[in-house]
């Protein structure tokens, strides 16, 4: 890694951008293909999840910049292991899936704790698996790719894509609050 790539700011931006874009793409996938709108509005999930047209749900994509910063702070001491070693991307993928999905601290959907300690039907645990896998693969692909072939194009593309996610999130919040008129 070059000197600029070892600084926290550079690393943090790459993680934040990779996370935010991967999260947004996986969320659009879940909304479109997994029909989260219907899933969250009916049955058991409606008592737990906010509807997809909630201002908080719309704000979620934009708030991922903060979550990306947390992920960057946690991964920073391990950046050489996951970005410079042979198959480091695979180690990163294992960390992301293992710690953020399968082995969470609390009993969340799809996690080991969730299966053991909740009364949630297995179908609900399995509902998020495709989204989680897509997010993890995209996040690792974007971040590891950026480090494997650092180019100015990655920087420009990341700024444009993160700006689009923030704009989409803002427009979603404004729409859910009734400040935008549909056409």
Helix content: over 70%
Helix/strand-derived category reads: mainly alpha
Q: Mean of the pLDDT scores?
A: 90
Gross geometry: globular
Structure notes:
It is a single chain. This protein has 183 residues and is mainly alpha-helical. The protein has 10 helices and no strands. The longest helix has 25 residues, at 8-32.
What is shown here, in short?
The chain has 10 helices and no strands. It has 183 residues and is an all-alpha fold. Helix 2 (8-32) runs antiparallel to helix 9 (129-148), helix 4 (55-75) packs antiparallel against helix 10 (152-176) and helix 6 runs antiparallel to helix 9.
Features:
183 residues; mainly alpha; 10 helices
What is the secondary structure topology, with strand pairs?
Elements: H1 3-6, H2 8-32, H3 36-41, H4 55-75, H5 79-83, H6 88-102, H7 112-117, H8 122-127, H9 129-148, H10 152-176
Helix pairs in contact: 2-4, 2-9, 2-10, 4-10, 6-9
